Amino acid sequence: MNVQCGLCPKECVIAPGESGECRIRVNIDGKLTAVTYGFPCSVHVDPVEKKPLFHFLPGTGILSLATVGCNLHCKNCQNWEISQQNPEHSTAYPLPPEELPGVALRQHCRSVAFTYTDPVVYYEYALEASQQAHAAGLKNVLVSAAYINPVPWRALCAHADAANIDLKAYSDEFYRTICDATLRPVLDALVAAKGAGVMVEMTNLVIPTLNDSDNDIRQLCQWIRTYMGRETPLHFSRFFPHYRMRNLPPTPEKTLLRAREIARSEGLDFVYIGNLISEDGENTYCPSCARLLVKRKRYTVLANHIKDGRCAYCDREIYGIWQ
Amino acid sequence: MKRRTFIKTCLAGTAALMAGGIMRLARRSARRFTRACRPGRYPGRTVPLDTTTVSQQGPWKG
Asked: Other CB atoms closer than 10 Å to residue A276's CB: what's the count?
């Protein structure tokens, strides 16, 4: 008997013994089974700045994990070795959700990140593990492309404290041709996450010739300002040739600087540049008094002038989870 | 309004309401979400979690 997966907008109809597009949701004896549930392929302690999250417990380590598989098939995927991997050909660690908080606490982490591939596809595992993490006093982070249906997304957001969500481009054509997905569900999920009280930061990977025009950047920033709020941190990330997109050069530095200027001119308060060593691309400045609040170099916090979630100079509240 | 026109209007209205209701129900049932089951075993290879590896920074983006 076929089963239909209702997790993401692809809503795959899966024949017995077959998997959905994500490779990991399998029809076993007429039952939809998440074969990576409790079996992450990667478990590491990362600096939280690597997610990237710049407004969440700066300078702390975060237990980061993923299973193989992804419901998107982006031609430029940076983690394609695991995201496009079949579980049968992979190696995993048995780590039931109830054991996850213990691992995080032994590593002196205050939070857990469901990241690297996409927590959408290992949904049930991420949901159960985040419940367990909350019960142990840990915070939860989702790093996702948010290509998911509204009902499961709301349930996952109920146990998430922060998220970095990719908005790959403000273009349905881009999503269709590059990612094998569509734009609308991602926009809806972004608004829903913010509405659910999740501290959302966003990432846009700027790819030469595909989503790097002034108009592309401006439209994306206008949407963020209107629907997510000007306080939403935006990370412009530098593209490097990967996977099935090795024909394009890395994003020039001047393109990223221009993107940041456009975002600022559109009224966004916190705009960052990632994947590029720059003088001030990773620093946080106060939107009111313009003083330097957090100085960062790659994943290291060199100075932090945010006190109790407020600017130490002018007392303005700064969006984020700071302790 | 003639009796025939009145009946036609009533029928058209009822049909429209029913169609709307059916479409709404269909949409709601399509969005119903059932969680996937936990597997009996992993289809690939498994190895014990190594604390030394865990404490190192991940090689992946994000």
From this structure: 16
Residue of B nearest to A88 (CA): B44
- Taking an 8 Å cut-off on Cβ atoms, the answer to whether A39 and B46 are in contact is yes
Cα distance between residue B12 and residue A155, in whole Å: 40
Percent of chain A with pLDDT over 70: 100
Residue whose C-alpha is closest to residue A191's, from A166, A227, A221: A227
pLDDT in tens, A158-179: 999 999 999 999 999 999 999 9
Q: State which amino acid sits at residue A41.
A: C
Helices of type H across chain A: 80-83, 100-106, 123-135, 150-157, 172-174, 184-195, 214-223, 253-265
Residue A128's closest CA among B52, B23, B37, B19?
B37
Q: Do B38 and A34 touch (CB under 8 A)?
A: yes
B47 and A47: CB-CB below 8 Å? no
**Could you tell me the domains of chain A?**
3-311 (3.20.20.70)
Q: Which residue of A has its CA nearest to B29?
A: A6
Q: Model-level pTM?
A: 0.92
* CB-based burial label for A201 (10 Å; 0-12, 13-18, 19+): buried
Is ipTM over 0.90? Answer: yes
